[in-house]
């Protein structure tokens, strides 16, 4: 047996160890690629985050109610005011710089030029110019006689003096006091700076000296005082009603009156025209800022507030007068003022604005309704008053429902989350109590409703079935067709 021939083997070009490392790397790469593909697939199939709007609510005027109402809309997310992504801002007062800086990029709860209605001099000038047009009703149908005096040299002061002398002569036999109420023309609210006077020398001193102490007041609005107001248990009152203005996609103004949240504000003190009582604001002004400082505040009504229905029962008014005469009359005055100002409120046609206005009305002893003033940023505090604790949250919810939800609507139903779907259904079920009283198709309306005061000499005999109760009879003016009430 011979020796076996040994054939040398060729050394491997891929050592065993090296081959193992490459195999491990290849497997790892394959797994990594698989994970990436899976992640990509998950990313494509995963639902997108829900649509949200960022907002900021400024402090003041019971801002917690605004926050509570916005929390009912899960598609709104709170952010600070510096966030560049926020698309809605709620704040107490109109911010002129915000309009200049933000343009149309955000929605807000004020109109750019609301001063033509909410400043006392602005309201006077707006309505004076509007009513001067032929065929329109004069101002004295729905506002007390008014003048805007800035200096003793202007024409308004001359006109005021003539009116003062005229009323002094006409009212002398009736033993009237010829009272006038003087209000700072602007930069004034909550009764600040208001004076009641019936002496021309005193009024002249107020106009000539006090107006110059604060140039921001813009002079004085001198308005004939309603000396025979309708009273509740011998005390003055006014009615606070609400109107919401909303801009549409073309920047046009639409107005809505709220039907269920109007209320009566009462005085804590008996009404008096005695000279020693003229300086007592608590007698003549029913603003919360004045009345809550009175010792008898809340003694007669909780928070000095009454529901309209309760008020109608406590005054000597005809049956159904509240629904058929008073509310329609107030809404007609609202519509008239908005028609006068709608072109000036939003001249740049901004598309994402709305504003809640507070209209203050007074009634005289003959049930005539007068507009006293219009307020931006109407008080939303509830003052621990049970009536307001029910009305104001409802009002805020309705403001956002009609105002904000038109501008920033909820996501489409196909993209809603379950929580958002439930929120939308709840809002739709709740509805709102706003009624549209002015819009693009209602521009240049005519003030069809006649004053609600009874006529001393009825112009027509009552028709069958027009008895209103309480000694009042509903009559119709044969010339205008307008209804009014008169004593039998």
UniProtKB/TrEMBL annotation:
Residues 447-473 are annotated as: Disordered. Signal peptide: none annotated. InterPro entries: TTL/TTLL_fam (IPR004344). SUPFAM superfamilies: Glutathione synthetase ATP-binding domain-like. It holds the Pfam family TTL. It comes from the Eukaryota. Residues 448-464 have a biased composition (Low complexity). This is Tubulin--tyrosine ligase-like protein 9. It comes from Pelagomonas calceolata.
């Amino acid at each position: 047996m011979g020796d076996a021939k040994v054939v040398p083997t060729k050394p491997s070009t891929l050592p065993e160890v090296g081959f193992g490392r490459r195999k491990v790397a290849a497997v790892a790469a394959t797994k990594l690629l698989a994970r990436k593909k899976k992640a990509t697939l998950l990313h494509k199939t995963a639902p997108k985050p829900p649509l949200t709007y960022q907002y900021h609510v400024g402090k003041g005027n019971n801002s917690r109610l605004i926050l509570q109402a916005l929390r009912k809309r899960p598609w709104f997310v709170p952010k600070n005011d510096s966030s560049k992504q926020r698309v809605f801002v709620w704040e107490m007062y109109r911010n002129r710089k915000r309009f200049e800086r933000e343009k149309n990029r955000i929605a807000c709860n004020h109109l750019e030029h609301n001063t033509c209605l909410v400043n006392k001099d602005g309201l006077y000038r707006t309505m004076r110019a509007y009513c001067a047009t032929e065929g329109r009703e004069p101002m004295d149908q729905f506002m007390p006689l008014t003048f805007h005096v800035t200096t003793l040299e202007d024409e308004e002061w001359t006109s005021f003096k003539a009116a003062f002398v005229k009323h002094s002569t006409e009212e002398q036999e009736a033993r009237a006091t010829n009272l006038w109420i003087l209000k700072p023309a602007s930069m004034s609210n909550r009764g600040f700076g208001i004076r009641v006077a019936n002496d021309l020398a005193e009024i002249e001193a107020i106009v000539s000296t006090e107006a110059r102490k604060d140039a921001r007041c813009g002079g004085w609005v001198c308005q004939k005082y309603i000396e025979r107001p309708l009273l509740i248990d011998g005390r003055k009152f006014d009615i606070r009603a609400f109107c919401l203005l909303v801009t549409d996609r073309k920047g046009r103004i639409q107005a809505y009156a709220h039907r269920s949240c109007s209320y009566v504000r009462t005085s804590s003190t008996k009404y008096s025209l005695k000279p020693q009582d003229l300086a007592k604001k608590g007698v003549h002004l029913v603003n919360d800022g004045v009345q809550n400082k009175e010792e008898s505040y809340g003694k007669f009504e909780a928070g000095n507030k009454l529901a309209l229905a309760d008020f109608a029962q406590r005054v000597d008014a005809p049956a159904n007068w509240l629904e058929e005469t008073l509310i329609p009359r107030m809404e007609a005055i609202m519509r008239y003022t908005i028609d006068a100002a709608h072109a000036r409120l939003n001249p740049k046609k901004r598309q994402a604005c709305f504003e809640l206005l507070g209209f203050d009305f007074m009634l005289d002893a003959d049930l005539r309704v007068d507009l006293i003033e219009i307020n931006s940023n109407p008080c939303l505090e509830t003052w621990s008053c049970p009536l307001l604790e029910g009305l104001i949250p409802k009002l805020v919810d309705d403001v956002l429902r009609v105002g904000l939800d038109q501008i920033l609507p909820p996501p489409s139903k196909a993209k809603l989350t379950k929580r958002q779907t439930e929120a939308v259904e709840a809002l739709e079920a709740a509805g709102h109590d706003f009624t549209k009283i002015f819009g693009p198709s209602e521009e240049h309306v005519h003030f069809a409703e006649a004053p609600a005061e009874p006529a001393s000499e009825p112009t027509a005999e009552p028709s069958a079935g027009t008895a209103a109760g309480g000694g009042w009879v509903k009559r119709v003016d044969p010339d205008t067709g307008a209804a009014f009430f008169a004593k039998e």
